[in-house]
Amino acid sequence: MSGPIKAVDWIDEKLTLLDQTLIPLEEKYHSYQEVNLIIEAIKKLVVRGAPAIGVAGAYAVVTAIDQAKRENLNSDQLEDLIDAIGDARPTAVNLSWAVERVRKFLPSGRSAVLEEAHQIAREDRLSGDLMGAIGSDWLIEKLGKKPLTLLTHCNTGSLATTSIGTALGVIRTMQSRQALKEVFVDETRPLLQGSRLTAWELMKSNISYRILPDSAATMAIMNGKIDAALIGADRIALNGDSANKIGSLAVALACHEAGIPFLVVAPESTVDRNLQDGSSIHIEIRSDDEINYFKGIQVAPIGSQTFNPAFDLTPAKYISAVITEKRAYEIAKA
Amino acid sequence: MSGPIKAVDWIDEKLTLLDQTLIPLEEKYHSYQEVNLIIEAIKKLVVRGAPAIGVAGAYAVVTAIDQAKRENLNSDQLEDLIDAIGDARPTAVNLSWAVERVRKFLPSGRSAVLEEAHQIAREDRLSGDLMGAIGSDWLIEKLGKKPLTLLTHCNTGSLATTSIGTALGVIRTMQSRQALKEVFVDETRPLLQGSRLTAWELMKSNISYRILPDSAATMAIMNGKIDAALIGADRIALNGDSANKIGSLAVALACHEAGIPFLVVAPESTVDRNLQDGSSIHIEIRSDDEINYFKGIQVAPIGSQTFNPAFDLTPAKYISAVITEKRAYEIAKA
């Protein structure tokens, strides 16, 4: 179902990533044999999306084993490499979760680690299909079976996962059930994951879409143009508080005010079972340059300070339901 | 008080505009002798901001008179030129208001029309000072005299007016009263009037600022980083409903939820006394290209459809007060 896009793959014993910084202009793949280059790729968002980063991180542990062998590193040095992979980005729980999960297989050798990484990818694929079904069931039950206009933020599709996606997987499933009219795609500043990536995936899948500035989402929602909004998540606390791409909170607030459903769609691995609520989730603050320059073009006075958080936290009270591969957890009333 | 920036001026019998599409990279002025070029400049946002467009439109009527004389147009043709100026952009009420105000002086001749246009500019300058004082008084009365962090959206300063500005004029006045800590400047997609123009004005005035993606405003407000938000307006209905740059509504909603003041600052000429409420305000929809391209760089799949409204409507119930040059109209409770 995920079509031809493979954002993360293991080819010829090497981690292979589709370079998402180049989409929609180029479809280019890179292979990696060095952990520091993978970490750089994760930081630069060559690969992004919590589930995709998780799978990439798991495969990167195999790369670390190969690199350690090639460079005669001792086991402490190997553990340091693996630690560095897990720390490449701080907010998404899936990365450290996947790295720790495959790390346990180190004593059993490289092939056991690789098999576990493949297993994480397989589970991600399956969980995408399950989330798609559970989320679609939920929407059709609440809103009736009719073509819906759905709004989404950032990219949560095949580029962000190794499956049909999380929120975008539900949207794809709605399309396959003839229950989708159109998708409103927030462009998702500053890195435009919506206009660059989600629009590209939808175009490739012949799904009707419309790109809007993030700041227009509230108007679209409050003016009755949208039936429901769906986003992914990078970390979910036990009470349902969800960290996701900056701008998610504004969408949630508008849906709450308009009385339409706001769904968070993410695999169970996104739930951080150490967190009762989201208040202690570490929010990554990114560089001034992401705001002050656009593809190398200066768009603000030189040296401007910025406020550039990569994520925000949506309190559970604004979330109608969290959809996982297991079930729909209903939180707030839509 | 407005410093050296003159966005709209009348020099050597010609309307002169600072080309705001080039800021912050270049500070370039154009002079106009043809109405169609002025209309094009207004449409392309060489000049923007409701009060500045109003003054530009008033001077453009003098240009129309000069052009009619040069080209031997009859009075019907002159009236057509003047109609076209008033229709250059549909949402801001100030443009048609200013054009109609000077048009009345046509029977008295060119110098009377020009004098009335100068008078509109003078009144705008004075009203900026008055709004600055009234808005600052309001904020200090409600929040106490301490350095505040204020958020603003789009550009409402000397570039948008012929004065110290509307919302940005209040912010400047707060600075001169030592009651300003820092300004959070929404970048204001798609045309980045915040990061390009407001940041540039604040930098020139040595006022401390920080640029943020529009989508981060809700988080900044809900997390307690902001004491109050201030915006301008393009058209205000009698009940207080206000049309302003797309994204204003999201800021208003967040302020409402966080319980902090949300102020609309605009001259009385922005109030459309024909409108009981905002429901019938015509919202300009702009081109797909503004979203799909960035300074000529493609950022979305070719041919993507968009939802690109230039403005949204903030219902009065989310507005703490409307500040004009006459008084603070208190609407909702902050």
Apparent shape of chain A:
globular
CATH topological fold name of the largest domain in chain A: Rossmann fold
How many β-strands of chain A, per DSSP?
15
* Count of separate DSSP helical elements of chain A: 10
Architecture (CATH level 2) name of the largest domain in chain A: 3-Layer(aba) Sandwich
Largest sheet: number of strands, sense, barrel closure of chain A: 7 strands, mixed
User: SS-based structural class of chain A?
Assistant: alpha/beta
- Taking Cα atoms only, what radius of gyration of chain A do you get, to the nearest Å? 19 Å
Look at the structure and give the CATH class of the largest domain in chain A. Answer: Alpha Beta
**How do the SSEs of chain A run, as a string of H and E?**
EEEHHHHHEHEHEHEEEHEHEEEEE
Number of domains of chain A: 2
Strand content of chain A: 15-25%
Overall description:
Two copies of one chain form a homodimer. The first copy, chain A, has 334 residues and is α/β, with parallel strands linked by helices. The first copy, chain A, has helices at 35-43, 50-70, 75-86, 93-103, 110-143, 167-176, 193-204, 217-222, 248-258, 289-292, and strands at residues 8-11, 14-18, 29-32, 148-152, 180-186, 209-212, 228-231, 235-236, 242-245, 262-265, 293-294, 297-298, 311-314, 321-323, 328-330. Chain A has two domains: 8-123, translation initiation factor eif-2b, domain 1 (Four Helix Bundle (Hemerythrin (Met), subunit A), Up-down Bundle); 130-330, Rossmann fold, CATH 3.40.50.10470. Chain A is 39% helix and 17% strand. In chain A, strands 6-5-4-7-10-14-15 form a seven-stranded mixed sheet. In chain A, strands 1-2-3 form a three-stranded antiparallel sheet, with helices on one face. A three-stranded antiparallel sheet of chain A has the order 8-9-13, with helices on one face. The mean pLDDT of chain A is 95. Chains A and B meet through α7, β6, α8, α9 and β12 of A and α7, β6, α8, α9 and β12 of B.
